[in-house]
């Protein structure tokens, strides 16, 4: 995937999250938004994995853990959902760690406990993004 394709996918995932938020509004459990966003993304033809286990490489071994990411879209973008009063640094650390452990170029941290998803959402990129080919 190129940088432009990842950026476009991120834009489309954000649009789907906005649609879910407009229909449901704030105040529901994170799990409800997760299921609805997965449904919306799949409706639009995306491959979405939900509650995916994240193994940890430690001392040359792969350790199965209880770490689970919320959504993985097209095996490229990690989507971590929250329904909290405010996002904390630990939420950012969580998604950055998931991105690193799985080698994914982009992550979206989306908080549904808001009046405006666009202003509360945080996109993240890491070294895997900078290694992607440029377009053109």
Overview of the molecule:
This is GxxExxY protein. It comes from Salibacter halophilus. InterPro entries: GxxExxY (IPR026350). Pfam families: PDDEXK_3 (PF13366). The chain has 136 residues and is of the alpha+beta class. It has one domain. The chain contains five helices and seven strands; from the N terminus they run ααβββββαβαβα. The strands form two sheets. A five-stranded mixed sheet has the order 1-4-5-6-7, sandwiched between helices. Strands 2-3 form a two-stranded antiparallel ribbon. Helix 1 (3-24) packs across helix 2 (30-43). The longest helix is centred in the N-terminal third of the chain and has 22 residues, at 3-24. The mean pLDDT is 92.
Radius of gyration: 15 Å
> Total number of helical segments?
5
Percent of residues in beta strands?
A: 25-35%
Shape, principal axes of CA atoms: globular
Query: How would you sum up the major sheet?
Result: 5 strands, mixed
Q: Whole-Å distance between the termini?
A: 13 Å
Return the structural class. Answer: alpha+beta
* Largest sheet: spatial strand order: 1-4-5-6-7
List segments where confidence is low: pLDDT < 50 over at least 5 consecutive residues. Answer: none
Rounded mean pLDDT score: 92
What is the number of E strands? 7
Helix content: 40-55%
Q: How many discrete structural domains?
A: 1
N-to-C SSE string, H for helix and E for strand:
HHEEEEEHEHEH
Protein name: GxxExxY protein
Organism: Salibacter halophilus
């Amino acid at each position: 995937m190129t940088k432009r394709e990842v950026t476009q996918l991120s834009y489309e995932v954000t649009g789907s999250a906005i649609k879910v938020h407009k229909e449901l509004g704030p105040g529901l459990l994170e799990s409800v938004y997760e299921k609805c966003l997965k449904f919306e993304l799949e409706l639009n033809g995306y491959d979405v994995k939900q509650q995916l286990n994240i193994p940890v490489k430690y001392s040359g071994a792969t350790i199965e853990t209880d770490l689970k990411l919320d959504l993985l879209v097209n095996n490229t973008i990690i989507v971590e959902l929250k329904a909290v009063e405010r996002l904390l640094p630990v939420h950012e650390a969580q998604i950055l760690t998931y991105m690193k452990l799985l080698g994914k170029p982009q992550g979206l941290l989306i908080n549904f406990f808001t009046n405006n998803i666009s202003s509360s959402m945080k996109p993240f990129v890491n070294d895997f993004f900078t290694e992607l080919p440029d377009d053109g």
